[in-house]
Fold this sequence. Notes:
alpha+beta
Amino acid sequence: MDIDNLRLFVMAAERLNISAAGRALGMAPAVASARLAKLEQELGVELLRRTTRKVSLSLDGSDFLPYAREILAQADAARAILGGTKAGPKGILRFAAPSSFAQRHIMPLLPKFHETYPELTLDLRLSDTRFDAIEGSFDLALRSAPLTDSSLRGRKLADDTRVLCAAPSYVETYGMPDSPADLRRHHFIAWGDLEPRALIGPEGEAATLNPSEMTCRVIMDDGDAQREATRAGAGISVNSLWSVADELASGQLLRLLPGWRMNDRSVLWLVYPRSNVLTPKTRFFIDFLIAHLGNRPDWRD
Length: 301
């Protein structure tokens, strides 16, 4: 298979526009259509369905797409190792991340990133709900959890210390808890799963934060909304320091039970499928994020 034809297919599949993909690769629309037809003839399947109004992936095309991306990644990595390219990274990098983290910390970095790597396009998929890095065919994903999935590789971006917070107005109304047991009489802004959290005290003693034993009048799955509801005085919540460091420093939020810590081993990991070659564009993006967001002292306990 011709690598250029594979690259054209991947770009057309991502844009659902054969003419636009061809122009991006310096081909006239008729040439792009002919090259895709040749690739389909070689494979013996229809990869893209064309009508006069739109282009869509066929079932075979959807199955073939992750393999085409992997072949291109292997080819780009091989050329980079052999010094076959002097240019910076280019193309499209598919990156998945929690929406709340991306809005607060990655969006402000985009101008600097585009200035540094002008030929690299970021395809950002942002959600605070859990995603599958492999099923989603992402080049890279940010996860906040222990790295236990054997199908993934990763590099640590930063610590993800979780803390209990409340607004000064809430504490004035309901009081300051002195121990984990006091939390049972408080209002709690819960994460969607309502799972109990293990707590470790200053002397190593163990306790449990159990939302089912508290008054949960708000349950949500968005970190930014959780922080803002807490800031408004709606209740106590668990937040990552990367999400609330500014509010704690300014006094808009208060840290509760500061001698206690969450025992959940959460770390911000940049992960990619173990089967993937770490392409130059992915490696450059990892290094960029670590350089700007790694080892933040205000995110550590």
